[in-house]
Amino acid sequence: MSVEQIKLYLSSLDFPWDMNQLPTSAYLVGGSVRDALLQRYKTPLDLDFVLPENTISTAKDIANFYGVGFVILDKEREIARVVFPQGTLDFARQEGDSLVTDLKRRDFTINAIAYNVSSQQLIDPFDGVADLEQRVLRMISPTNLEDDPLRLLRAYRQAAQLDFNIESNTRKAICDRANLLSTIAPERVQAELNYIFTTSQGNKWLAAAQEDGLLQFWLPNIDTDKIKQLDRVENAIEVCSNLGLNQPELSILSKLATLVSTDEVAAEAEVARLKYSRSEIKAVAKTVKHLPCLQIMTNQISLREQYFWFLDVKDIFPILMVRAIATGVSLDLLNPLIERYLNPEDLVAHPQSLVTGNDLIGKLNLKPSPMIGTLLTEIQIAQIESKISTPQEALDFALFLLHINT
Ligand SMILES: Nc1ccn([C@@H]2O[C@H](COP(=O)(O)OP(=O)(O)OP(=O)(O)O)[C@@H](O)[C@H]2O)c(=O)n1
Q1: Cβ of 270 below 6 Å from ligand 1
Q2: Which residue numbers delimit the Poly A polymerase head domain (predicted)?
Q3: Exposure winner among 41, 79, 264, 310, fewest CB in 10 A?
Q4: pTM given for the model
């Protein structure tokens, strides 16, 4: 690995920006240098630069020159961002009195390499290049892990993303400090978990993190059996995707639903504590709630029951199918449900109203009341049971229901 690789990487980026405009004291640092040496292309691109001074004015000048966005991320620490449509350039003032001091405060050796763009010189005080070649994550020091304990989890996440190993002393140091993860802001932990959930090597490294005691605080119901299920979840995602069942965050939500408590209320609390969004929390809790019913469901359920079931699970259907398939519910049982869900014309899964509440009020001279909702539901069920099929039949059916209820 060499400077040539970095030059090649930088010249092949789809970025409308001339790097020669940078001050001679600017160094490309961190993940950008690591990725350049690995020829690892990420979108959107995020290049990090360190300068001894004038970071904000440098960023501003570049943003003005190209007419692109400019944001000060941290005024005190002088960190500013230039936002191009293709990605971002971050400029940070060097931490400490030299570049090496700055690099020494970072997490792993592979993330502590700097490259001077104008002199084309590589600064690698901790032999990060050798570790990149050996594909290992090695801590700079145990104290650095303590300074920001999120780094404990970052090790497993980056090992998963890069397909690296964690060097043995580093892994031991992480294990010894696992409880420090409890001090980290939940949003930061969540971001790392999400990366692991969506990375191909993620399950292997989640298992390692669990074994090393890193996950117990944030996912207190996690155990080896649940971890083992993750590979089946991965296969089930594949099966579902081949069937056309997709949903944003399917991987994250179905894996979370696997690792949390099997009790709906406890599961909801766990996901809420990690600061997932309201809809993500509800999705996981609902999946946990509905899975047991699906596991004992037979194909005897009535259309009416299916109607109410879809009403409740429509928004989490793909997640629930992933969990069901992963826990061994037979596809023979699930297929009729999946067919309904995938068919927009299917009235059981996607009911369409023959009449509206206003039709009932206007045409049958009714007063607005919760009874209207009940009538609309019964009309939809009568429609899926093929008892009625036109708006007039729906109105007649509503009259009939009103009649037998008086
Ligand atoms: N908790 C952290 C976060 C970041 N860094 C340092 O800051 C750099 C940039 O951080 P970030 O962009 O978060 O991570 P990357 O390593 O670039 O990797 P990724 O983009 O995949 O998160 C890292 O390479 C590392 O040198 C660190 O030491 N400790």
Answers
A1: no
A2: 26-138
A3: 41
A4: 0.91
